[in-house]
């Protein structure tokens, strides 16, 4: 057969595979067994098929762009993360393409399909709740780093913070001030971040026999957190200390206190997770687990650049510690009785 008539489809028929499998062999993406790869290469030679991609390296066949898919573009955490990664990539020749999935696995799939068509050099991903991503799927995007959330069974470098230890420290802080009824209002139950923070909370509470801990799950939004906090305060008036899952959840908790006519910290002490500008404007300022967002973004960017340059990278996880910032929103629960006397 002449070279002019050879196509990817004639190669696929000759090798007894799909055209998609031939494409994977040509582009170096996805998982293909050694036997199948050999059959495809033999068919390419026999058919005289010579696409432009033959002989080009994987790196050369990709565009100088890094994709970034986040769970909720409305969360300030992701805006800070995007900026930090963009700064780290500055001057490298790579652009950063931001995409959002609204924490929906179906939207995540569609967005990744669109991103794949651009043949990016790499991907930064915050996996959605319920994500079904696999190693084979992620290989299609070149070099991949996950941030904040991790996926079980997926082997890519992950940049995270010490969530369990950080929330344990916050819970212990409330216990040290004399709080015995404490609660944590978390995000989606299935998220790895929720599981890690809940583990830290329960570990701290269990180590203090006098304390009782309550856990509530939300969608991670301000509105969801406000509704959960209002219900919690009505059902459990003994709760005098609350920890928030993220900046939006913390905002919802504070709003719930205002709606219920409860004062912070006189009636309820509050500790947030991930600092936000409004927290220092609140009176008193909100104590917070300061998540190192900028450091996490810079590290994710560096890992991608290293991998794109052919350097070996520790598969991780890469842990960047958080810090408990003490402000004025935590006080002994006895202040309530003293001020009302």
UniProtKB/TrEMBL annotation:
SUPFAM superfamilies named among the record's database cross-references: lambda repressor-like DNA-binding domains, Periplasmic binding protein-like I
Ranges where the HTH lacI-type domain occurs: 6-60
Pfam families for the chain: LacI, Peripla_BP_1
UniProt KW Transcription keyword: yes
Any one GO MF annotation of this record: DNA binding
UniProt superkingdom: Bacteria
Record keywords: DNA-binding, Transcription, Transcription regulation
PROSITE patterns to which the protein is assigned, alphabetical: HTH_LACI_2
SMART domains: HTH_LACI
InterPro entries the UniProt entry points to: HTH_LacI, Lambda_DNA-bd_dom_sf, Peripla_BP/Lac1_sug-bd_dom, Peripla_BP_I
Official protein name in the record: LacI family DNA-binding transcriptional regulator
Source organism (scientific name): Nonomuraea monospora
